[in-house]
Amino acid sequence: MKLKYIAFLLLAFLAIPALAQKITPAKWSWSIKPLNPKVGEQAEVIFKVAIEKDWYLYSSDFDKDLGPTVTTVTFKSGIGYQTVGGLKAINPHSKNDTEIWNGTYTYFTEQAEFRQKIKITASDYLIEGSYDSQSCSNVSGLCVPIKGTFSLKGKAEMEVTADSAAAPVVQPSAPLDSVVAKPTVVAASTEASEVPEDDSLFGFFWIALGAGFLALLTPCVYPLIPMTVSFFTKQKGGKGLAFLYGGFIVLIYVFFGTLLAFFAGASFANFLSTHWIPNMLFFTIFILFGISFLGAFEIVLPSNLVNTVDAKSDKGGFIGVFFMAFTLVLVSFSCTGPLAGSILIAASQGVFLKPIVGMLGFSLAFAIPFTLFAIFPGFMQKLPKSGNWMNEVKVVLGFLEIALAFKFLSVADQVYHWHLLDREIFLAIWIAIFTALTLYLFGKISLPHDGPAKNLSVPRTLFATTVLAFVIYLVPGMFGAPLKGLSGWLPPMNSQDFKGSQAVEPAAQTNNALYSDFLELPLGLDGYFDFEQAKAAALQANKPLFIDFTGHGCVNCRKMEEYVWSDPAVLRRLKNDYVVVALYCDDKTELPADKWYTSKVDGQEKKTLGDQNLDFQIDRFNSNAQPHYVLLDPRKDDKPMVQPVAFDANVDHFVRFLDKGKSIFQSAK
């Protein structure tokens, strides 16, 4: 953690503070294909987004309730056309974010493409609508909402007319930088904001390969080695059959990955990530496998199935080799199931090829050594004999399976607000599990299938010490310590009832703040969510205003709160010296009709709380990126007292920023 924090600070020092100005990191354009559609036939409206270097744009095909705001394209009831199906994102990247969003989102870099099928119903058509998206920087940590309108007008069987799209690509008629979108995620620094991980198929292949080699250590796999050697000593096909054997192992695993790829997609991935049914299913499976690994019972496949497949393998030749590979997969499944399943779950959250690549890597870890055993049976004599060490590996995996099971239960608990597994309960369970693992590794407890006690090896002692250190790290969390290194695994702090004296209590919100029924400030701060209400409160309290332009899906906003606002020096100033108002620029809550207005910035009607807050930020402070912090004198309410700041992880910088604003306010008449 210290190394990560140091790297994070170094990057923060090197960052150039962003000036308050409107920026447009993503430019939308659109066209229709074919250019000459006929009445009654289908066409596609193609949206392309040019994304600047070091920026990314959230896609349209992940769960809108996950946190980041998905890209949306809304079509008006137009003339001469009707939409067919929904908007389709073309090959976005995918990321499973366990630290912030607890799920999977999709995004684009460099260029994004979305397509919408339409049906032409008349000779004259007019296609109109609006788009709503968000782009974030991997370098500065800023997030910018991107919003605009589009229009395509033409005649069937004719090229698009000059007043709508003389060229195949038409530039937006509305400002590209006026926005309302909710996505937010990675932004780059090392600790306070994270660059999207390498989601390439190549990187995922190596992860899956590593999981496969780990699965080779399980007890169900080891006995298959002599079975393989025995089988191939009887065959006359030589190395050809041995390579065929490895190929069949790969094909069988990849086949299941292909099936998953066929049925999976972004919606299926979101279902796996957030719905209670798959999460409870995974919880149950991991618990059962974990208890089995501890020695309570054995999970085996139906004997009739295994015996039938094994009998087929005795025939030898091509068919025999296939069924020998099938036997290996079936017999080993009772131990490798959780590992293979984890790869498939992760793979289902990516593009179509990802499950195939994942299973390819996982199965190659099996195919390579077993192919070598088939070619050179003498290798077996050099292997360590199976024995108590394999059971120890199995027990360790059992404890880990049980611990990970509660992560799935925690996801369902948070999404559906069951409050069965609040933070302190989750921590208590993990402390108990890893304490038991520590005692086992030190030889203080034994389990049913353990052999006679013996002296501890150096690797086992070091591993036991590492687990003990992890337990010690967890304990302060029971008293309210944030445990930032596990922030993506643990339930949120606001779910913890039992807190120590240093823990942050929720804000009392005794000020009847508007929108406080669904919005809240972090770290126990008591503030507002409406500018006019906050301004009135600041005048009454004779304090300056601290305006926090933020967003639900703004990762860097959360990072600033977690690493900068939480510092005692900063938090004390925010509580005592300022009236804080958080203006969420991505909130989709629709306001009453009497509060709607037409923006002077882009001429569009602003109906939602987020639209109005963003419009206020652009109009008053010429900025459209979050986070964005403004210090304002409510007595003047004309311009910021100090140059506004954006993402800056240096606590001293932020303290000086707050102190300068307070000093200017106090010296002003």
TrEMBL record:
Membrane spanning residue stretches: 201-222, 243-268, 280-301, 321-347, 359-380, 392-412, 424-442, 462-483
Domain Cytochrome C biogenesis protein transmembrane stretches: 207-409
Domain Thiol:disulfide interchange protein DsbD N-terminal: 40-150
Topology versus the membrane: Multi-pass membrane protein
Keywords annotated in UniProt: Cytochrome c-type biogenesis, Membrane, Signal, Transmembrane, Transmembrane helix
Subcellular location: Membrane
Range of residues in the leader sequence: 1-20
Predominant localisation class: membrane
The protein's name in its UniProt record: Cytochrome c biogenesis protein CcdA
